[in-house]
Amino acid sequence: MTTRTFTAxxxxxxxxxxxxxxxxxxxxxxxxxxxxxxxxxxxxIHPILAFTAILCIALGAGGAAxxxxxxxADLDALMKRTAGRPLPAGRMERQSALxxxxxxxxxxxxxxxxxxNWLAAATLAVSILFYVLVYTVWLKRITAQNIVIGGAAGAFxxxxxxxxxxxxxxxxxxxxxxxxxxxTPPHFWALSLFVRSDYAAAGxxxxxxxxxxxxxxxxxxxxxxxxxxxxxxxxxxxxxxxLYGISAAALSLAFIxxxxxxxxxxxxxxxxxxxxxxxxAYSIFYLFAVFGALVLDRWLIA
Amino acid sequence: xxxxxxxxxxxxxxxxxxxxGLALGAFVVLMFFVSIAKMxxxx
Lengths: 302, 43
Hints:
The complex is a heterodimer.
Chain A: H1 15-21, H2 24-40, H3 47-71, H4 73-78, H5 94-115, H6 118-139, H7 146-155, H8 157-166, H9 171-194, H10 196-202, H11 207-232, H12 242-264, H13 274-301
Helix pairs in contact in A: 2-3, 2-8, 2-13, 3-5, 3-6, 3-8, 5-6, 6-7, 6-8, 7-9, 8-9, 9-11, 9-13, 11-12, 12-13
Chain B: H1 6-42
């Protein structure tokens, strides 16, 4: 009689885990801003090509998110908020995430080039590389300004949508880029204030960990001012009408008021950070509403 | 050491193969319509 020994065989990752790697909730904002960039463009694009362009933006964002989670699996394991993700939870091999991320990113860029134009494909490639190499690999672990510079990666979708429709870049998509770029620090810092202990445990040098809540609240309030200026700017510059201008001004004013309430808050524990949680939730609504108003305005003008 | 139950492994493999098949099918259909759209835009 022979004795056979077996080594433990891990279950292959479920397809739902691959979907989770793409951060679908983050993707919704990326897709929406990309769609608005495309719809705000002054030329019409064939609906099938428009759909493909948005699909490519979504797939590119998903690929970048997968590569981010592949690289940050060690950090994610240390944070409560992210410990349940497929890699830190041990539901997937790291190699699978790497292959999936690279494959999805390359596929999205190639499909964008074939379906729309190669400038849009190049812009998509730059945004993916910026998010993975500049933000994830380089900045995130070394500087408290990580999301200030890294925020540029999330600002690309409206530019990509616009370029996919028109084939070139003009002032309006650059202003939309500036709006998301300046929106990212208050949005992320509001979140990182009430999950500060998570970032501290993982050794991520987010601003609240390095400089404390007081400085972070000041920076949030400061950033809302140029952000609001970038949001309203298309109106006086003649790139959008009064519907957009008034909506953007009202929404930005509410953002500033919420940021001022954050500034006046002295709590250091998450239980006392209702203003921060409110600002974080509002910041997501704000971006949806401003971009939605822009598309409505452009369509009304048309 | 005990062998893992083969059914979950087969289930996962089947699920992934099914999703991959659907994705490839969707890609073929998409490329067909993209080609038609590009030709109509070109003309």
